[in-house]
Design a protein that fits this description.
Layout lengths: L2 H15 L4 E6 L5 H13 L3 E5 L1 H8 L15 E6 L3 H14 L4 E7 L2 E3 L1 H8 L4 H54 L1
Antiparallel strand pairs: 1-3, 1-4, 2-3, 4-5
Helix pairs in contact: 1-3, 4-5
């Protein structure tokens, strides 16, 4: 590979790094071509970039970016997965793939600027998707509000019941008084 080709690859990697939400480094040694293609297809379905990268080139491309925090991990055969959307989706896809193809090893991740290890990545894989979490939070916020409204409605119904009973009582006493007057 000549210098011009390397510069082109570094430039392309720079563009791929921009706007990422999550980046995960993997060791792919032990996977055959079909298994790698299967993983790439699955990631591509979710618009996730996955590429085997030369460590020296990714180090050059990551200069001045958050991805530079991963420089100590750019050793050995390395593939880079970059997600521009929900980080949990990338993590789930990779951890599911590891279950069927244990030769793939997740090295480290960078999620929204924070370096996370394999244990944190596994924990993140167990979380529900972002939209489900947001719905759960919204439900948690709405529940107390609904309970307050319910309590106020019960109190209002009780007050209205008392007022209606008093109106009925007064109506009966007036009609009783009217009947007594009409008898006299």
């Amino acid at each position: 590979m000549n210098r011009r080709e390397k510069e082109l690859i570094v430039s392309e990697l720079n563009k791929k790094i921009e706007g990422y939400q999550a980046a995960i480094l993997t060791h792919y040694r032990g996977l055959n071509v079909e298994q790698m293609n299967q993983l790439r297809r699955r990631l591509r379905e979710e618009k996730i970039y996955y590429q085997v990268v030369k460590n020296t080139l990714i180090k050059l491309a990551s200069k001045g970016t958050d991805l530079e925090k991963l420089n100590p991990y750019f050793e050995g055969p390395t593939a880079l997965a970059i997600s521009y959307g929900d980080p949990a989706l990338l993590v789930k896809i990779l951890t599911e793939f590891v279950k069927t193809q244990p030769a793939l090893e997740i090295k480290v991740g960078l999620i929204q600027g924070e370096v996370i290890g394999t244990e944190e990545i596994k924990a993140l894989a167990t979380l529900p998707p972002r939209n489900v979490l947001l719905a759960q939070i919204l439900g948690g916020i709405q529940t107390p509000g609904g309970q307050i409204v319910g309590a106020i409605m019960v109190a209002l119904q009780q007050v209205l019941g008392v007022l209606q009973a008093r109106v009925d009582q007064l109506s009966q006493s007036e009609s009783g008084t009217s009947e007594a007057e009409s008898r006299e």
